Structures are given as structure tokens and as C-alpha cells.
Amino acid sequence: MMRFKPNWQSLLAALALAVSLVSLPLTAATGAGTTTAVVLLIGLSIVLASSGASGSIIAAGLAIFVHAAVFLLLAALDGAEGTAGIGFYAAVIACWLMAWRLVTVMSGDNRRSGGLLGKVVVPAIFGIWILILWEALTRGAGVPQVLLPSPSLIWVRILNSLPILAADFRQTVLKAVLAGYVMGCGAGFLVAVLADRFRFLSNGLLPIGNLMSALPIIGIAPVMVIWFGFDWQSKAAVVVVMTFFPMLVNTIEGLKTAGRMERDLMATYNAGHWQTLFKLRLPAAMPFIFNALKINSTLALIGALVAEFFGTPIVGMGFRISTEVGRMNLDMVWAEIALAALVGSLFYGAIALLERATTFWHPSYR
User: Fold this and answer.
1) 21 SS3 class
2) pLDDT digits over 71-112, tens only?
3) Are 97 and 108 in contact, with CB atoms under 8 Å apart?
């Protein structure tokens, strides 16, 4: 006989389902068949989540039942936007609680291995449910598009604007961000190595670095546009300013992390400054250097976007955002924001993967 193990997500989901049943209809256009299917799928999810079945069976069943139910709920809004009642939102909450139980089960089963489920699937489910709740709220409540478009409208805009998004990506990311990132990080690293060799440089540059870090982007960007023109060069200059000092400070601090015993050992081998630097101190500083690279991966994109607000050719992600806001085309604005978020996440992830491949020997990864 199957044993039941109630949990708080299942109990709250059952309560939400009961509220949904006494508050029918879900929307103005929801038929009896859709309502029955939604209730049945949520009920099966609650029973399965409270059962004593194995974690893999519970996770597979919840993944199917919960997402099928929420798909039917969102489909019920077609042609009935703004008519969602309490029953609709209660059903969505019940699905959300069961999705919460799903990721809890998946995380628990994967706690020791730390494999694919914990690193990819669980974060993906979190992200998908943010979009689901956003879609349900905006369409169910009939939120005007000029205030907050739904994810489905943003997706349609992305598909219909691929050439524009590609041109903006080339202008902002492939030109301004990459050029400024390479120059800023490279210059910061080289100056840090020199500052480590010549103490007066370190004493003089670190206070200036703290001062420059406090400068607002909106104060630097107009000056750079005046100096370097309206094309991508001025945006790259802003990125250089924003990425130079984080790399400088982190590299200088990282070069100090080599232990006294290791440095004494290098001295007994009659190693000079540059030999000690390349064979001992730079490898020890790699976590600090990669930390600066990851910080700068997001700072560079932010700096380029803000710089484009102050003058640019008629192309670029920042230019598109500022222009489409004035036209009240919020779906296009969110399409550019989604593109920027995707680019920033991939950029950060690529640096993190490179760090893991390079500094796998570091104690923080053991």
C-alpha cells in the first residue's frame, strides 16, 4: 500500500485548488472541459507530491502534470485577457507551489552529486516560472502593453525584429563592448604588474582608482562622446574607464596572496623578480584576476548601453532603448533588455567556465 507523506507545498496547493473550485469560472472564456482538465492535473500533482514514490518518479510526474496544467490556464486567456478571476489566480498559485515542490525534490536528489539537475535544470525551471507568473499576471489582469508587455508579446517582437536586434548587437557588443573590455582589462593588468614592481605606482594609482570607481557613468559618457565622436569609439572609451580600475585593484591584491614560505622557496632557488612573478605570484593571483574579469563582463555592457544614450549613430542597443521608450514601444524595449541580459549572462558564463578550466587546482574548487 502506498504511503503518503504530506508536505507544506502540497497542503497549500490543495487549499489553493479548493479556492479555485469555489471561485469558478477561471476566465470569461474557460469551458468546462478546460476547467476539468486543469483541476484533474493539479489534483494528480498534489497526490503525487504527497506520495511515497521515489524522487525521480515524483519529479517526472510533476514536470508533466504541472506544466500541462499551467499551459491550459494560459491558453484559456486567449481572447479573454483581463477577465481572470480569483479561481484563475488560485489555480496558478497551486501550479506554482507544485513547481516549487518539483525543484525541491530535484535539488534534494542531486544534493551530493551536484550534476546536471542542480546546475542547469533547476535554474531553468526557476527562470521559466518567472516568465509564467509574469504572463499570467499581465494577461490575466489585462495590464496595458505600454506599462508592461507580456513575455509572449516580447517574444513575438523579438522574432519580428531579428535584423534590427542583430545590427544593434554588432554595434554595441561586437564593437564597443569587446574593444573596450579587452583594452580596459589588458591595460589594468599590465599597469598592475608594473605597480607591483614599482611601489610608487601602487601608492599613487590605488587612491586614484578608488576615486575613478566613484565617478558616475552619466558624467563620463557625455565627455567621452565629445572627445571620441558619436560612433562606437566613444562607447569603448567609457568601457575602458569602467573596466580598468577593477582589474588594476584586483590584480594588485591578488599578487599579494602568494605565501611567505613559497616566496622564500623561490628565493632559495635564486629566482629573480620576473621568474617569481610568472611561476608563483601570477598563478596565485588568478582567482582575483578572473574575479575582475567577471565583474567587468557586466560593467562593460552597462557602460556601453548608458554611453549610447548620449549620442550614437542610429543603431545600437542603448540607442534603441532610449528611442523606443519615447515612442512607447515597450515590447521593443524589453526585447533589447532581454538581448542584453542574454549577452551579459553568456559573457559571464564563458569567463566562469574559463576560470574553472584554468584554476581547477585552487583550494576553492576542491
Assistant:
1) helix
2) 999 988 888 888 888 989 999 999 999 999 998 888 875 444
3) no
